[in-house]
Amino acid sequence: MRGWSIPLGRWLGVELRIHTFFLLLAVVCLGLSASNGPLRGVGLFMALVAAVLVREVARLLAAAWLGLQLRAILVLPIGGMFAYATPESQEAANQGAGQFVMALAGPLANGATALALAAAFTGAGGDINLFQHPWITPAYLLRSMVWMQAFLGLLHLVPAYPLDGGRLLRGSFARKQGLAPAGRAAASVGQLLALVGMIAGMLLHSPWLIIAGFFIMIGAQIEDQGVFFQSVVDTVHMREVMLTDFATLSPSDTLADALYRCVHSLQEDFPVVRGPQLVGIVSRHRIVEALRNEGNGYVQSVMSRAFQVARPEDTLGTTIRRISAGHGLTLIPVTESGRVVGIISVQNLMSSMSLLAEQRRIERMEAGE
Questions:
Q1: Euclidean distance between CA atoms 149 and 161, whole angstroms
Q2: Nearest to 52 by CA among 35, 28, 31, 73
Q3: Domain 238-368, CATH homologous superfamily name and number
Q4: What gap in Å lies between CA 306 and CA 283, rounded to an integer?
């Protein structure tokens, strides 16, 4: 979710990111308003942002009502994509009544907002013809506000993944094929319908159909990559990627001794053990900082006692969620019967995954022979 996106901080513990395609859309809106002035283009862009905001607020309220825990939200011009903090929340959002609540919240909110705006503008009087073509144009912003809400709501009823209708389609596939194959199938359908939408937009000279098809295509690719990544991390276990050649420190070690160990190790973080028992974690940075500011002391005085552990049979997906929820957590010791048998760090995780992928490729080639 981080590629080509801008972080907007954390809101109520949820990481919020906005895709840079919003900048492209702003340029498109300014281009459409060339004959009406740039302020009209800005107004049209804000009408679209308002439609997305209405949709996402409704979905956040629906998620809160269902008790779902969110980890991050990536906002695209066609709406937001949620990453859930727990497997239980993800399952509740993709199955049963939860998937219908999450799928219908956005379209219903956009539809209700469109009707409310139409009633308000019509009741206020004035020369506002809501059904005059073009419906969305920088020349008539009030009419555009109504139809932008309606268009986004209707768009998400199309069974093109990752739109809401496509998520319901994926849920139907998942009951027969499983979640990962269903995600890939629904993403393929979404990309096909996106291509049809772009071709139709070119034939009908409708820039909004072209734009919608383009962003559906991008969203389907992002979701497809996410499904593939999820299928990988849920089949890889800690024993396959954990570092087994690692150094530990004792709480009774001096900081000077710990610094010497740092010099001769590539590790950034060290498990601190007393006998076989894990009692803390200390980073190279913390050791150096303590030596500079406080002089020599003992590891026990600077180690962190707030840590999480994994088991060798835990999946990589479970561990990644622990790292993501750890707020600065960079090391997870892997323990078996209370003894540290390996470590997983952010520093080595990607290299371990790439090497594991190569190992599996070679094993498949040898099995084929």
A1: 20
A2: 73
A3: CBS-domain (3.10.580.10)
A4: 13
